[in-house]
Amino acid sequence: MTKFLRYCLLTLLFVCFAASLSQIHQAAEAKPEDRFAKFDGMRVHYQNYGKGKDALVFVHGWTCNLTFWKTNVPAFVGQTRVIAIDLPGHGQSDKPQTTYSMDLFANAINAVLQDANVERATFVGHSMGTPVIRQFYRKYPAKTRALVIVDGTLRSMGTAESMKQFLDPLRGPGYKEHAERMVTYMTSTVKDKSMAAEIKAAMLSAPQHVMVGAFDGMLDPAIWKEQDKITVPTLVVMAKQPNWTPEYEQFVRNLVPGVEYQMWDGVSHFLMMDEPQKFNETLLAFLKKNKLIK
Questions:
Q1: Closest alpha carbon to 94 in 175, 170, 12, 38
Q2: Which pLDDT does position 35 carry in this prediction?
Q3: Do 168 and 95 form a contact (C-beta atoms < 8 A)?
Q4: Any bridge partners for residue 122, and if so which?
Q5: Beta bridge partners of 126
Q6: Global pTM value
Q7: SS3 label, residue 152
Q8: Residue 40 Rama label (left phi>0; alpha psi -120 to 50; beta)
Q9: Per-residue pLDDT tens over the stretch 101-136
Q10: Of 86, 141, 196, 243, which one's alpha carbon is 20 to 30 angstroms from that of 40?
């Protein structure tokens, strides 16, 4: 065997070995690492992918859980560290009888970052996840690289008095029937009906005290300080519906200078699940544009 042939064979073996190591590494990163952070006497469940001081953190909405991001998380694993969180009262996190405020949720996220040894994060918040990550930004601005708002509001939905028709039935013994009507309406425009059923089942599994407490938390006037601007890079992706008027868009643009604001037609409130590829590509473009991902 000539020296040249031996060189070629050794080179080929090295390339194959390196490729195998890369595949093993990618497979390890793609597999979620289930962890629990301790916060205020409770366990907060999260799934971690990869390593690093910076992370992309996914935060679900009211009565949802981290599985609502299952078609999105894999698109970013291997490109950055990814964390998906079950907020207190949701998913596999503890569900104590406590005040489920946006402040509590923000502090729970901070406990997760501390447990994961993450210094800064880009936060993706769906629905109720929007006031949650905004409250985190208020409390921990140095830990916030950017915000991604997914069909969530940046101003109050109303007062406790104006929302009595929604809240009072949730407080009573017939709360399950009322919750089912609410969730059925929320999922009525989801394209995939089997996915709609999955969403509905997950949301209706939330305990009554969590449903009520988190709803009350969203109505707390203390978290709707319209004068405190958001100055980190921000992407807003909304599902076209009557509440998101041109006036609301202008409000957001005034509140968030330089915001990237998108309105999508033909999607439901769960747009990241309806159009996962489009959502993932949109988020990836935003991350690259703002140098938030390698």
A1: 38
A2: 98
A3: no
A4: 56, 146
A5: 150
A6: 0.89
A7: coil
A8: left
A9: 999 999 999 999 999 999 999 999 999 999 999 999
A10: 141
| ∠ Cα 73 77 80 (to 5°) | 115
Which residue from 20, 125, 107 is spatially nearest to 64, judged by alpha carbons? 125
Sign of CA dihedral 242, 243, 247, 249: negative
Q: Nearest 5 degrees, angle CA 188-CA 133-CA 52?
A: 115
Strand ranges (E), 24-117: 33-39, 42-49, 54-59, 81-85
Give me the amino acid identity at 237.
V
**3-state class (DSSP) for residue 225:** coil
Indicate the DSSP class of residue 168: H
Other C-beta atoms within 10 Å of 97: how many?
Answer: 10
Alpha carbons 114 and 249: distance in angstroms, whole number: 35
- Cα–Cα distance, 115 to 53 (Å, whole number): 12
Question: Computed from CA positions of residues 102, 104, 106, 109, in that sequence, does the dihedral angle turn out positive or negative?
Answer: negative
Token reading at 209: 């005290």
Residue 88 near residue 100, CB atoms below 8 Å = yes
Decide if 59 contacts 124 (C-beta within 8 A).
Answer: yes
Polymer length in residues for the chain: 294
